[in-house]
Write a structure and sequence with these properties.
This protein has 232 residues and is an all-alpha fold. Helix content is 74%, strand content 0%. The radius of gyration is 45 Å and the shape is rod-shaped.
Length: 232
């Protein structure tokens, strides 16, 4: 309510000899309601305006004493209040949209990470199966050539330094670094696709190291050397 109208209501109340509490009792309201009217914090509704006009013995126009300037002030205050309300509502809606977009990005990143992890596990199994088949083929070829047979394909495979490296843990840490560090929610899941690639390379490198260890030439027995010296 306009401050001038609030002052007008306070002046009429004093002119008629009412206190705030007495006026509230006449209208069946609380004293706080009358006090808010006179501080321009709230406005009396139409029923209370009519009751005030009857109690003071004046018309509604005389009660409010509204002129053109007051009407303009009231209209400006109402427009400003409506603009503030609309602005606050727009800010709340924008915050909600941003929150929903962030939640959707999180859900998509989580789903992508899950799918990538499952794909990495399947690729790792396929790489392990291919490596086992290659080892079995090498064993069969060695047996056909008359060379000593290598270890059975069903024997437990020794974990070399490449296979022992916890690359899956490193990939998981990198995923969270990309997500929370640089906010790459939509592309961070690609890190998990490197797991089967690393395992494939690790199998090759460890197999190469094992073949290098097994291919060392054994030392010649001492008895053979002494026989050769005797013949000489």
């Amino acid at each position: 309510m306009n401050v001038q109208i609030a002052q007008r209501l306070a002046e009429l109340r004093r002119a008629k000899g009412y206190s705030q509490e007495a006026l509230a009792n006449e209208l069946g309201l609380s004293r706080q309601a009358v006090s808010k009217w006179e501080r321009a914090e709230s406005s009396p509704d139409t029923e209370n305006l009519i009751a005030l006009a009857r109690l003071y013995g004046v018309g509604l126009d005389d009660l409010l004493n509204v002129d053109k300037d007051v009407e303009d002030d009231v209209a400006f205050e109402n427009a400003e209040r409506a603009e503030k309300t609309a602005r606050a509502q727009a800010e709340r809606e924008e915050a909600l949209r941003e929150q929903r977009a962030h939640q959707e990005a999180m859900a998509q990143a989580t789903a992508a990470a899950t799918q990538a992890s499952e794909a990495a596990a399947r690729a790792a199994k396929a790489a392990a199966a291919a490596s086992e088949q290659a080892a079995s083929a090498r064993t069969s070829a060695a047996a056909a050539a008359g060379s000593p047979a290598g270890p059975a394909s069903d024997a437990p495979r020794r974990r070399g330094p490449w296979r022992s490296f916890p690359y899956s843990v490193v990939a998981t840490v990198l995923f969270f670094v990309f997500c929370f560090g640089i906010h790459a929610w939509t592309t961070a899941w690609l890190v998990f696709l490197t797991i089967p690639i690393y395992r494939w390379i690790a199998n090759i490198m460890d197999d190469s190291l094992e073949r290098g260890d097994d291919g060392a030439a054994p030392a010649a027995p001492q008895g053979i050397s002494s026989d050769e010296e005797g013949r000489r």
